[in-house]
From TrEMBL:
GO terms for molecular function: S-adenosylmethionine-dependent methyltransferase activity. It comes from marine sediment metagenome. Pfam families: Methyltransf_11. This is Methyltransferase type 11 domain-containing protein. Residues 22-116 form the Methyltransferase type domain. The lineage of its organism: unclassified sequences, metagenomes, ecological metagenomes.
Length: 253
């Protein structure tokens, strides 16, 4: 919110209703509704999960907002929005679920205006706790039997997520629950550190104006990193007349 307000002031005090905002990976659109309630009428959300989008459409209707504010991404992570459309694109705990991050950043670049900005929050790769399974250190290990064994150990001592988030584990034995958790960690999580994501954004012509929790940090920042286990990238799109086409061609190769 603070970042968007700074953007508005920098852009000659553009009104809230005229700022175009996108929540990439919006879930059922709670943040979209939140922004609309505060006067940001042109706030949209996209997600790859049809179930959460369907639930979100119901939420929007109940609030009296247009159902066109939420959209299902296609199988390649593409949106239906035109090029250079959004002033501000943000994501919250999304990038760690994306296997092909290049396609996503390329699409974000395509739909972001020249000098449009972004705010992206994602779990730190080296944070001690895996935030989906609530098990320490498992995401540090390779996606092989070592990780699976550690998950089984935590399940055996009762350290595992519980209903209602993991309904598929109800009444299952420890071996089956371990299999479910392991498969999720392998197929649904892809942790990257700040420098790797920064490199991808720069590759697609974004200027990364700030990222928190760099490798070279002092003790106080190290402790905060250990506790919070989140990273932030603030981005700004730098475009030329042919940059969008150039990066589409690069992805196709």
């Amino acid at each position: 919110m603070i970042k968007i307000e700074k953007y508005r002031k920098k852009k000659h005090k553009i009104s809230r209703k005229d700022v175009k905002i996108l929540d990439y990976g919006c879930g059922k659109g709670e943040s979209v509704t939140w922004f609309k309630e505060r006067g940001y009428n042109n706030t949209y959300g996209v997600d790859i999960n049809p179930i959460v989008i369907r639930n979100g459409l119901t939420l929007l209707s109940e609030k009296g907002y247009s159902r066109k504010s939420l959209e299902l991404l296609d199988k390649n992570g593409k949106t239906s929005f035109p090029e250079n459309y959004f002033d501000f694109v943000f994501s919250n705990q999304v990038f760690e679920h994306i296997e092909d991050i290049n396609k996503v950043i390329n699409e974000i670049f395509r739909i972001t205006k020249e000098n449009g900005e972004g705010f992206h929050l994602f779990p730190a790769k080296w944070g001690p706790l895996e935030g989906h399974l609530f098990m320490p250190f498992i995401h540090w290990l390779p996606k092989n039997h070592f990780r699976k064994f550690l998950i089984f150990f935590f399940v055996s001592i009762g350290l595992e997520p519980r209903y209602p988030r993991w309904k598929e584990t109800i009444n299952e034995n420890k071996k089956k629950r371990t299999e479910i958790y392991y498969n999720y960690s392998v197929n649904k999580t892809f942790y990257r550190d700040s420098s790797e994501l920064e490199g991808v954004f720069r590759k697609f012509n974004f200027h990364v104006s700030l990222y928190l929790f760099k490798k070279n940090i002092n003790i106080r920042e190290l402790i905060r990193r250990f506790v919070l286990s989140n990273n932030v990238l603030l981005t700004q799109a730098k475009k030329s007349s042919n940059s969008s086409m150039r990066y589409f061609d690069e992805v196709k190769k």
